[in-house]
Amino acid sequence: MTASDRVSLAKLRERAAGCRDCELWRGATQVVFGEGPATARLMLVGEQPGDREDREGRPFVGPAGTLLEHALEAAEIARQQVYVTNVVKHFKYRQRGKRRIHQRPDAEEISICRQWLDAELAAVRPTVLVCLGLTAGHALLGSKLSIGRDRGRLLETELAPAALLTAHPSSVLRERDSDARHAAQAALVRDLRTASAAC
Fold this sequence. Notes:
The protein is of the alpha/beta class. The chain has 8 helices and 7 strands; from the N terminus they run αβααβββαβααββαα.
């Protein structure tokens, strides 16, 4: 990683921290920018930060992040060598008592926030772009993308030499029984291995 790459991502993070381009900043604790080396060949993009990410200011540190870390380890990928980020940088939620319940960002919020993701892509220039879930997949690769048809195979995109769609780790956590959860996590590991092999 060169000094200029570090400064580039640091400056982007600093600029994003003051973003008020949509209304999501009003309810969020802070911007949750991506993290990882500017030399990362693999970039993982999720939907948005969750409650814990919003509080800590780092992507994928909650339950879905823990599951992702285990999947990366099983796929023999060091998280420290991967750049992880989200399509939307503020936590969107509705209050239910003391709990903050995740709400999916809408098309306008995704479009407004796209400037930061495009800047991250330009700074990192990954070899393989992995979309974690359909929200990220549709935002980056188009609305015709389908989990059933496109998951786990290398796709063409102008954003990187290759892209791959897989399930979001939170969908693995939502599986009701342990067998289904185990199968979903194994599928996520297979997809990550496919992405890593293409780097």
